[in-house]
Specification:
This protein has about 70 residues and is α+β, with helices and mostly antiparallel strands. The chain has one domain: Alpha-Beta Plaits (2-Layer Sandwich). It has helices at about 15-25, 55-60; strands at about 5-10, 30-40, 45-50, 65. The protein has a four-stranded antiparallel sheet with strand order 2-3-1-4. The longest helix has 12 residues, at about 15-25. The chain is globular and about 30 Å long. The termini are far apart.
């Protein structure tokens, strides 16, 4: 399976601490190899293989935020 990168829109991130919380939770999803979060654009880019949108959304929710797209 090839590594892919998916971009998600996340509602509620307002600062660098928010970014770190999301990166920490999403980084624990099996198959995720890299996470980049930006509160300025409200996006999270997730790289890896074998993870699902549902797993990423659940991890973002665990951090206290919502995937909107």
């Amino acid at each position: 399976m090839a590594t892919s990168t998916k971009k998600y829109t996340v509602q509620g991130m307002t600062c660098g601490h928010c970014e770190m919380s999301v990166k920490e939770e999403v980084g624990e999803v099996p198959g995720v190899s890299a996470v980049e979060a930006s509160h300025e654009t409200g996006t999270v880019a997730v790289s890896g293989e074998g993870f699902t949108d549902e797993q990423v959304a659940a991890a973002v929710a665990e951090a206290g935020y919502t995937v909107t797209a």
